[in-house]
């Protein structure tokens, strides 16, 4: 905690807070632990207390308390981030947004909706189902919309529909001085002042608490089809993707899974795909366009050593495919019971993707632990999940070495150290390497908007005070 | 000037600057006047000097000079902005970017390019022509890419291809302390730190000087067709657009011109369109898709009182159409020789567009000056150009009153006071009205990044010191 320990806080102030939140303020060890732990490799950093607000006004009161007493505040969504983004490294309050889970409005005519930050993406799509609309951003996990905005999430549909940068039209945020701010109006575009919406998207809660999000929605496509195709070589799979993108085919999803990941998928999801480098595809459009897209991609795949192109317009086939893809992380962990996942992600220009994956695969083949590659390759973005024994320091060091080589490679190719996981605790040094002179600018903004450094301190930047 | 007048600057410092730039530093009254005048209604505010840099290093040296002596610095592109965005209201140096006009690289495989800020959009498209690529953002004027980034420009193609917010992948900027900063790497997406790229896009030069821009490009569509259709009623034209958007038709352009504008177009461009509310369309895609899109829109138009739907796949017809559209502003001014243009623009949610245009047209029909409506209506964005006598104060007041009513109406509909012109000098009070509590946040960022207020001072914010 910045100022003093939780127990040294003025009893009156603490009593006022407790009176306001009742049982929605807890210091239970189990709940604190739960809010401090990481989905992935990072250490657990429990907060001193967890508060479950139900309104922006309640968030304002918590932030004002934190500002007055210099207590760290960590916004918490579904806990599905993987770079320790919501760990309470300096204690303080974890603000669990799960009770702010109302869809506030859907404007069918404008293809947008406004939701509280704790709404989860699957809940939103269930809500939208009968309106002919959907929210396309899909990072795999059933994350909250606020968390997805904060980490600038993207995932499988981003190749066609963009990332949270594109999906978020406006935000309601509570700033570090406890003021409620709406970042934008409802028009589809505006040239009025600085783009605060995009500043808060991806700020990982370090500039304020997002309490409401206005999202761009899309019409459910008339036709959707999916396909799976295994490849004789890794290069063939990647080249198929690169050609698909370069031809301008408006593919909705194209996911890369290497042979290790396919073996994991088959075991976990009881499927019997060939255990070779594989692409999962999804096509959206008119029935005719979907068929045309699939035919074009099938021809590209065949040219690049693709095997049987299993195309299907069947919803059940599609759902089985994406369930297998979404569970890829857990499937990978199950390759080695007792292990933990150390996921990393990079993103490179598409022209460099084949070489980046090839060189990475060569490193991984020499590794002592399983480490599948999966990726949203249409964007040039892919993940490695090191499946490591948390009690084996040599193995952890080995993963770290390969991870470093991977990020160095991506940066050398003019790529980024993270396509969608964010900086969190895991990539602070890499941010400096990647953007160098731009980081002091980011720090200036952080210091201007949160001079006491109470908003998710210890993330994104090292040594901020 | 913030510190002292130009003539009071230390002679040594000034001599060093003059030595560096030679004839590329000028204090000629004609050139200063030219850089201080507005394309539209705003008063001329000449700078004390104009400098024509040729490299980022030269920009760094000018900014360092300005920072050392607290001299205002106004980045200047093609001078085509309409809200006085580049006027030197506090004197100082106008930094004319026209000699930084090199296309630095085009990456065909990645669909992107990097250009110096003074490259103009038509020059870029000429450069790209033989590569099968194009840069879609088209605000009408042949603006510079740096200026377009700074005002978050959009224009006729934004309904399909987005605005400069979407088109800019990375920027090289010189910050107010004279440091060179690259805001992002070349990957298509990234979750690494704050989105500085989007912060500088639309900042109107108040946070730094943009010297290089990396842009997303698109493949030239296989087929392009255009269409023109006049309507019996204004409502019918707008409803056609709203239905087109709501059906998800990927229309590339849809432009609204009211009867007054069509009369002006016919006179100026020697065309013989019916002088009624008219839509100009453009369709991009495969030959079959382009035809399908046009057929669907033609049916919508017919349902909404549209007349003859003049569809053409002919490049000459298309070029004549868009030339007429691009010259709409000059055509409007020619309605009344000796007059000046007072353009304004708002953007509203598409569901409110019909009512917003209807009510605005009712105001304009009562006005004493011609004031055509033209708009990028697929985004909910439209312009009014008041064609006013600059020497008639009553008329200027009348235009101001109608403009106020228009913006009030747009804000009441959850819209914005400017869809694409920016705040500049003209809409500072409206920014406060529109975003209220968000403006102090913007000011904090401005103060953090430009504590001496040397970067384009007197724009966007009132009373910044």
Summarize it:
The first copy, chain A, is an alpha+beta fold.
Largest sheet of chain A: 7 strands, antiparallel
CATH fold category name of the largest domain in chain A = Vanillyl-alcohol Oxidase, Chain A, domain 3
The shape of chain A, in one word, is globular
As a whole number of angstroms, the C-alpha radius of gyration of chain A is: 22 Å
Unreliable residue stretches of chain A: none
What is the level-2 CATH architecture name of the largest domain in chain A? 3-Layer(aba) Sandwich
CATH class descriptor name of the largest domain in chain A: Alpha Beta
Average residue pLDDT of chain A:
95
Q: What share of the residues of chain A lie within helices? A: 25-40%
**How much strand of chain A?**
15-25%
Structural class of chain A: alpha+beta
Key traits:
alpha+beta, 465 residues, homodimer, Vanillyl-alcohol Oxidase, Chain A, domain 3, Uridine Diphospho-n-acetylenolpyruvylglucosamine Reductase, domain 2, Uridine Diphospho-n-acetylenolpyruvylglucosamine Reductase, domain 3, 3 domains, 7-stranded antiparallel sheet, 17 helices
